[in-house]
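Technical note accompanying the year-one report. For the benefit of new consortium partners, we illustrate the data format agreed upon in the data management plan: each record pairs a sequence with a structure-token string. No post-processing was applied to the example shown here.
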Amino acid sequence: MNTHEQAPSQSGAAVPDLSVCIAGIHFRNPVIAASGTFGYGREYQGLLDIACLGGICTKGLTLHPRQGNAGPRLYETPAGLLNSIGLENPGIPAFIEQELPALRELGPVVIANLSGSAVEEYREAAGLLAKTSVDMIELNISCPNVQAGGMAFGLDPGPAASVVQAVRTVWDKPLMVKLSPNAPDLLAVARACVAAGADALSLVNTFQAMAIDIYSRKPVFQHIRAGLSGPGIRPLALRMVWDLWEGVRVPVVGLGGIANAADALEFLLAGAAAVQVGSATFARPPLMPEIIQGIAGYMQRYGIAGIADLSIRSRTS
């Protein structure tokens, strides 16, 4: 781990308990595959022990099938990855019929990442998911609201709350909202989502960014702007998780640039209830099991009994 080594406070400690509970859902450990980087689970079979993961967030799902964006979709940067996928997916009905049964058999908690372009679209899609064995919805509110000129739902407290309220009319299981770091007032959006019925929050989604091909003298992506993930955003994501923890009273799941156990531990120490690992899985498919082992080793070395005891923060302080 790329942290400064310190003498352990305790040696020979018992095997730590890595399990966590988020909104009533039990996770065997706090490491979750992030949406958009793990497909529907089966894509990674044979590359890692999927059953050891705490949870899997599905690829972004919409009510109707989407073809995704034309042109380049991925572009590497020195400290990350730009993506402009365009939410390519088979649609909720096809996911339920073709992907969910196999995903359910893999073992980890199943979290459906739900996206949409209109409030009614979110509501109808959530209603279909409510009839399935999906454990939790991760509501992606970074999508453009077509009824409001294309501004993402998650940039303003009002539109964000409207989506949460709509989904809550048809979904009574745990609801986690994935926040955009591009919101002018992230805490205001977070509080609006919680007031509207969110049980947990995950952050951060990608940062808006772009790239230009100096040879063609044109933007790399068809829609110019893309989402930046990877190690370059981790300090920013960590700061946002730290700030948000102070402003809300629901579990916060941290993500953004996690590439090893030390990175994950930073988020857990900052108060995150769990972490999601995304882009780094592309480079190292077995990474998440290694992170789980690294967290367990750290806890055992320092005599930390459970994940909740990892945090350097207390709600009573």
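Partners are asked to follow this layout when depositing records. The CA atoms of residues 231 and 257 lie 4 Å apart.
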